[in-house]
Amino acid sequence: MLDLPHTTMIEGNAVRWGKVGRGPPLVALHGTPFSSQVWRRIVPPLADLRTIYYFDMVGYGLSEMREGQDVSLAVQSKTLAALFAEWDLDRPDVLAHDFGGATALRAYYLNGLRYNSLTIFDAVALAPWGSALVQHVRKHEAAYSGMPDYMHRAILRATCRPPPITRCQNRHWKFTARHGSEK
Asked: Could you report the per-residue pLDDT of 102-133, keeping only the tens digit for each?
């Protein structure tokens, strides 16, 4: 597990964060409904090459969570800008997943942050946020909050598994691998 030994108060929210490694700075932004722990297998191997900063976004992971808390994109991008100032970072590399991608983009365009590079994957950049499952859970949060852990794990396993590859897709990929792209 990644250690988050630091707490910074940003606009009334306690934000937990950690930093490991040595070398040029890399900031890792998680998505929702996750935490910085999504980076737990990625950060350690990079720590010999980079100084990696990671944090739990407002309302997620070990950062403060409270009823009625604003966890909007606007709050997350302001939080990122405040952390850049706290960390005294100028143009770090940024790695952003899911909602973290939208946060990094907003912070760039509206909060004036600048990056040496920005790598975004599986980004959520347009509303509505989240998959059909995420939207359904939000609509029926009370029902899901009372479910036993094994049911949560089963739902996550079922929804996070990649779709099966059909024989037709498999043949196409083998052809492309042997003969190059279709362009």
From this structure: 999 999 999 999 999 999 988 876 666 666 77
Pick the closest to residue 97 from 60, 63, 66 (CA basis). Answer: 60
pLDDT digits (tens, 9 = 90+) for 77-108: 999 999 999 999 999 999 999 999 999 999 99
Overall pTM surpassing 0.70 (yes/no): yes
> 6-130: which CATH topology?
Rossmann fold (3.40.50)
Q: For the chain, which residues make up each domain, given as ranges?
A: 6-130, 132-183
